[in-house]
Amino acid sequence: MNKFIKKKTLLLHLYDIFDDYVKSYFEVACIKGCASCCTQNVTLTTLEAFLILEDLRQTGQPHVLSRLEMSSPALFRPRYTINDLALACFNRQEPPGEEPGSELGSCPLLENDLCPVYESRPFACRSFLSLEPCQLSGQADVPSHLISVITACQQVIEHLDTGGWFGNLTDLLFLLAHEDNSARYALDEALSVLDLPGTKPLPGFLIPPHDTVFVQPFLARLFDSDLGGVSFYSKLNDLRRLPAGLNTGFRSAEDK
């Protein structure tokens, strides 16, 4: 099994664990056709973008990519990743300033408020949820501890794709839509990309201390979960070495 298949297997397993966790503990108000949070400023890793492209090709929908050209030129383009932010916090450093980009514009992939890649949607879309309908208020209702679980998942996903890239959905789909880039990424070869932050290894979890009581059980559930007789933690650690002791405890946002 090559490295890309291993990464894909772990990512899809994390998706399943998170989806099951949300269904088990929360009554989500989101329903089919609700696209209030489906903006053009979704961010993701190269691994997640590759899975979307794979889905479009397998389902005979490559034409969907043509709609990306309708995106606003003022896209949000992150200057750092979540693991960059975590490391800066642990080192008591200020991360680079972000330029917010346009707040206007729906996700260019949408078709009549439905997502053509719903099954392969990136984690950012899976975690855009609300416990109350947000169409009227314009704000999602998400408890703090669920945000911390989401952050932990984002950090694990970035760690899994260490050596890749992090950016706007439109930019990364355009990047990987070129067959040469797509083939090179699948073979775990480096891509030369300008103006996008590279994905980084996990330095520790960026979790407020008051949320650790909620996040630790989730991480135990994820890390101890079984993939063919081997734990998720072992497979992830074999693929991308994790910080020592991360399976028994973790560094929080206020640790020195």
Brief summary of the model shown:
With 256 residues, the protein is mostly helical. Helix content is 41%, strand content 4%.
How would you characterize this protein structure?
With 256 residues, the protein is mainly alpha-helical. Helix content is 41%, strand content 4%. The protein contains 9 helices and 4 strands, in the order H-E-H-H-H-H-E-H-H-H-E-E-H. The protein has helices spanning 3-25, 46-58, 82-90, 123-126, 144-160, 169-177, 179-186, 212-224, 232-239, and strands spanning 43-45, 166-168, 226-227, 230-231. Strand 3 and strand 4 form a beta hairpin. The longest helix has 23 residues, at 3-25. It is globular, with a radius of gyration of 18 Å. The termini are far apart.
- Shape verdict: globular
What is the topology, as strand order, of the major beta sheet? 1-2
- What portion of residues is helical? 40-55%
Largest sheet properties: 2 strands, antiparallel
From the helix content, strand content and strand pairing, which structural class follows? mainly alpha
How many helix segments?
9
Poorly predicted runs are 251-256
Query: Taking Cα atoms only, what radius of gyration do you get, to the nearest Å?
Result: 18 Å
Rounded average pLDDT? 85
Note the beta-strand portion. Answer: under 5%
The N- and C-terminal alpha carbons lie at a distance of 39 Å
For the secondary structure, the number of strands is 4
**SSE succession:** HEHHHHEHHHEEH
